[in-house]
Amino acid sequence: MDDPNTTLTATLGDLAEKVEERVRSGESASPSDVVRAGLEALAREERAFEAELKRKVEEALADPRPSIPADQVFARLRARLDDREAREGETV
């Protein structure tokens, strides 16, 4: 889609009313502007998520503490889940 004037058709369902309201209120000049703004917001959100994920991975890799083997991690998680299920079973 190299042509910036490419026309697409989308089924918006319940979102169509929100698009129309933004145009009626003057917040956006056209439905195309609303969709463009939404896609730009999605792109910003994805970039922010990727930056946060990268930061957390770098932080984890820089952590000097020894790694915990995966089998130990999963065993701890299983024990916590079993405890929670046992407690919930008692309250029923």
Q: Can you describe what's shown?
A:
This protein is mainly α. It has one domain. The mean pLDDT is 93.
Strand content: under 5%
How many distinct beta strands? 0
What is the average of the pLDDT values?
A: 93
List SSEs in N-to-C order: HHH
Helix count, DSSP H or I runs of 4 or more residues: 3
Helix content: over 70%
Total separate domains = 1
Q: What radius of gyration results from the CA coordinates?
A: 24 Å
Largest sheet: none
Coarse morphology: elongated
Low-confidence stretches: none
Layout of helices and strands, plus pairs?
Layout: H1 15-25, H2 31-62, H3 70-91
Q: Can I get a quick summary?
A:
The protein is mainly alpha-helical and 92 residues long. The chain has helices spanning 15-25, 31-62, 70-91.
Key attributes of the depicted protein:
92 residues; mainly alpha; 3 helices; 0% strand; elongated
